[in-house]
Structures are given as structure tokens and as C-alpha cells.
Amino acid sequence: MAAPVLALRDIRVVFADQVLIAAASFALAPGDRLCLVGRNGSGKSTLLRIAAGLTDPDGGEVFRQPGTRIAYLEQVPNFGGAKCVIDYAMAGGAEEHKAAAALDELGLSSLADPATLSGGEGRKAALARVLAEEPDILLLDEPTNHLDLPSIEWLEERLSQFRGAFVLISHDRAFLRRLTAGCLWLDRGAIRRLDKGFSAFEEWSEKILAEEEVTQRKLDKLIEQETQWSREGISARRTRNQGRLRRLHSMRAERASLVQQTGRADLAVETGQASGSLVVEAKHVTKVWPQPDGSERVAIRDFSTRIMRGDKIGVIGPNGAGKTTLLRILTGALAPDSGTVRLGTNLTPVYVDQSRSSLEPEATLWDTLCEGGGDQVIVRGRPRHVVSYLRDFLFRESQARQPVKALSGGEQCRLLLARALAKPSNLLILDEPTNDLDMDTLDLLQEVVSDYDGTVLLVSHDRDFLDRIVTSVIALEGDGRTQEYPGGYSDYLRQKKGTSDSSASAKPSAPAPKLERARAPTKLGYKDQRALEELQLRMPEIEKEIAALEAALADPDLYARDPDKFHRSSDRHDALKAELERSEERWLELEMKREELAGN
């Protein structure tokens, strides 16, 4: 094994009286390609700064091979008064022609004023700086934040060709799957290492947590119980989210049929639809923006779509392509220059963006959700105790009375989401909701959006998130070209390249499966049929008990009168909801299997 070029041993970090990192150790060898994974607030950025030599630990040792060049990308670039972007890009020691070339590849002017750059442009300038240095080690903290998809794909290509070692902090699963060959898991102050890429991380980490759960059940202290509850919830959530992916297939098939009907020059308008079933119908929409030089830029050209209740639409495209413009047109906030937009009836939209400025730092989580006072949150017409509702979003009871300013960035995003979803709505508009979120919170966001029974418009550059959520993708491809593709981001790529799963399966060996299907059974086996019948009996019982518990929990005085009963009822309610969801998933699988067999 090669000698390490960077090593951290028994690193300890203390903030105030809290031990953030207890004893973290890892070594980086030449050519290592590692991701650093952990929940928001676990100390990932602090550990990376220690590795870069920008922060001193409270204990432990750091070894850097003499002569090793280390470049560090921080989350928020500090331009330090640089007059132009090229000065900033050269400040790390890069030669001018290399810095200029990197900036040009990323579409940035060398003479641009750093103070005028957008968030995405600032991130590109910072990337150009660290890559132009040609270091031996790259330490990158959330390099894809605020980048559009073309820039993310460019960065993937550059890093795949990088000959040195790197450590990445990122929430972008697709990005990590492509680039990493090892994982560092910072969990409860210590580091575990997996010498496999990120594709193997979740199965590995879940196995470790399952083994720990056996031990943790024997412990009686509140902190371990709270930790166990949190991790069990995360494990169950990931399992449920995998099940939800199967539901997308039928939804995407329906959406594909609709796109085929509406994605052409002429749209057939159905009449007599049920009230509220149509959310948006756009026909031949065009939007042109005048430019300072007197020219015009076409943002959207002759675009048509029909969005129905329950659709989950992803909007993608380069920064500046017109994604926000399209959202404003589709929601009626901006009129097109030509074409028509018809909105459905009784729409109640809720908008969630990446800005956390609407949160009051001194307010508690309790007060943020119960703005009118009291201890109840009305969620989809039903009262929920604020503590019970906060638990749905991975908050502990002890955090309910904490001020918002004590939360990490990811926790504040969770709180924003909780507040938004507590409001009555049937149209959820999410503008880059995944920035700065850890993977556990992304799993929660996926669950919430998947369960949302209204319509979703989602702007995101997170390819994995799009694959897990959306039924259709609207791509703004430049020069006003706007096209809708049924399915997720991976489906979009296949269709854009002119390939499809159906064409790939059309091979000369096709007749063989026909013979097998002719001999296949036409009904469920005994065990499956028995399981289906039992589920049909059990699910109504679960729903009845859930309704009774919700009625009890709706009592505004229950928490104050009998907190133990409140907690027992809340825990039972959560357990039954999880059981019901597992039962519904299994019932859906068996019903689909039964229908498939009946069609043989």
C-alpha cells in the first residue's frame, strides 16, 4: 500500500461545551477518490478545513507529505477584494494561462467583477481556481451547489481525469456514484471507511446501523433512545422510498401518453373534465426578452403542455435558460408574448425556494409552526400536535422550544418544508430545494414530495432526486427550445439520444419469451393469494385504529394533561402508519402480479 500523502489521526473538535468530533482518523493515498459523508452539522466541513490546514483541531495529529500541494474549495468563495475574476483565479498560485483556460471552459469572463457574480458563477470561479492550481490533493466542499447540469457534467469529466487524490463532500448521489472509489462516513464524532464507491454506501451503512440497533435496544438512556428512533426512521424511510420508485413506472407511462397527445403543434382540449383535474394547459407559448444591445433573446419558443392533478414535473436547463420564467408563466405570474395559458380551478399554490430568509432567527420551532399560538398545526385539514408534527421532520421533542438560529442549515430547510406543507395547498412549487441538504434530509424530502397528493413543479439540478420523484421532465435546451420528456432525468437522457428501453429490448431472440409466457401460470400461487386476502382484511383495521389515534391526538389538552399517553399514542400512530405503508406496498405488488398473470 502506498504511503499516505495526507493523514488525520484522533482528531478532536469541541464547540463550546459540545464535542463535535471525538476521534476521527483517516489516511489519503495518492490517487484516492473518496467522499466524506455525514449528516448536516456532523462536522464534515470542519474536518475538511483541518485537512487543508485552515483550521486547527482541539486534539489529534495532522500529517501532510512535504511538498504536497493541496487545493481547498470552500462552500462560499471569498474573493478577498479581487478586482477581476482572473486575479482571484490566480491567487492560489495558478499560472495565468491555465486560470484563463479554466474560466473559459466554464463560460466566465476573466475580466468580470467578482462582486457581480451570481451564486453559480461564483462557484464556477472557485472551481476554476482550484483546478488551475493542478494540486496533488483536491478537497472539495459541496462543489455542485448552485451549478447547472452542464456545469456538473463538465466537472465530473474534469475530476474523472484528475490524476491526484481528492475528497468530496456532496449530497449529489449521481455525482458521487460516478467519481468515488471509497467512502468516509463521519458519524457521531468518528469515521468509518468503506473501500468501495458510493454505490455501495447505503447498503453498508444500513447493515452497520442494524447491527448497532441490537445493542442500542439494551440501553436505557434517553439520548440513545432518541438516536435509535432517528436512525430507525431513516432506515425505514429509505426502504419506503425504494418502494415508491416502483409506483413511478405506471405514473410515467400515463404521463408519456399525455405528452404524446399534447407535445405537438395542435392540442385537443377535452371538455367536461372534473373540476380541478386540469392544473395548467399551455398552448404554443413563446416568451422573448429584450437585450441591452437592442437584440432579443428567445427564452421559450412555441411550447405546449398539459399538467394534470397529481403530476410531478421536473424543470431542468442551464442557468439563465429560463426555468424561472417558465415557472412564472405556468403559474400565471407572467404572461407569455404569444400563446395561451389556462389555469385549473381552485388552485392553492405554495412556493418553497432555497432561501431561508423568511425564518425568524429568534423564534422557536414551536412558534414558527404555530404562528397563531397554541400547540396545534392544521395539516391537510387535520389538527396535529406540534411536537408530533416536528417528529415527522426528524426533530426531537427537545428542539421544539429551541430558537431557529440554533439549527443547522439543513435543519432550517426541514423547518421551512414543514411550515410550507402545513399550509393548505394543491400545487407545490419547489425551486432548487436540495441545495445544502444532507442525504437523510433528502430522503425525507423525497418521502414528503412523493406522498404529496397535489401537483408538484420542481426545479432541480440533482439528477438522482429527479429520477426518484418526477413523472415528467421539461428541458429548456437553449435558444428557446423547450421539450417535455416523460420519466425522470435518466429517461430524458435516453430519449434525447434517440434510444429507449423498448428499442433496446427488440432483439432477434424475442420469440423465446413468448413461449415461456404461454406456459406461465395465469393466477397467483396459494401463498401469494393468501397474503393478498390477509392484507385486504388487515388494512381497514389499521386505518380504523389510525383514525382513532388521530382523533385522540387532536385533543389540544392531551399533551399537558397526560404526556405519557400522548407519547404512547404518537408512537403507536407512527408505527401503524409505517405498517400501513408496508402493507400498501405489498398489496400493490401482489395486485400488479395478479393482473399480469391474468393477462397471460
Give a topology summary.
Elements: E1 6-15, E2 18-28, E3 33-37, H1 44-52, E4 59-64, E5 70-73, H2 85-90, H3 96-105, H4 119-132, E6 137-141, H5 149-161, E7 165-169, H6 173-179, E8 182-187, E9 190-194, H7 201-216, H8 222-262, E10 278-290, E11 296-308, E12 312-316, H9 323-330, E13 338-343, E14 349-353, H10 365-369, E15 376-379, E16 382-385, H11 386-392, H12 409-422, E17 427-431, H13 439-451, E18 455-459, H14 463-469, E19 472-476, E20 482-486, H15 489-496, H16 501-505, H17 511-519, H18 526-553, H19 558-561, H20 563-598
Please name the defining characteristics of this protein.
Rossmann fold; Helix Hairpins; 20 helices; 600 residues; 6-stranded mixed beta sheet; alpha/beta
Computed Rg? 26 Å
Helix content: 40-55%
Helical/strand content category = alpha/beta
Provide mean pLDDT, rounded: 82
What is the CATH C-level name of the largest domain?
Answer: Alpha Beta
Q: How are the strands of the biggest sheet laid out side by side? A: 5-6-7-3-8-9
Residue windows where pLDDT falls under 50 for at least 5 positions: 220-231, 261-275, 499-520
**Distance linking N and C termini:** 57 Å
Tally of distinct domains? 3
Number of strands: 20
Helix tally? 20
CATH level 3 topology of the largest domain: Rossmann fold
CATH architectural designation of the largest domain: 3-Layer(aba) Sandwich
Major β-sheet profile: 6 strands, mixed
Q: Rough shape?
A: globular
DSSP strand (E) fraction?
15-25%
Going by CATH, the homologous superfamily of the largest domain would be P-loop containing nucleotide triphosphate hydrolases
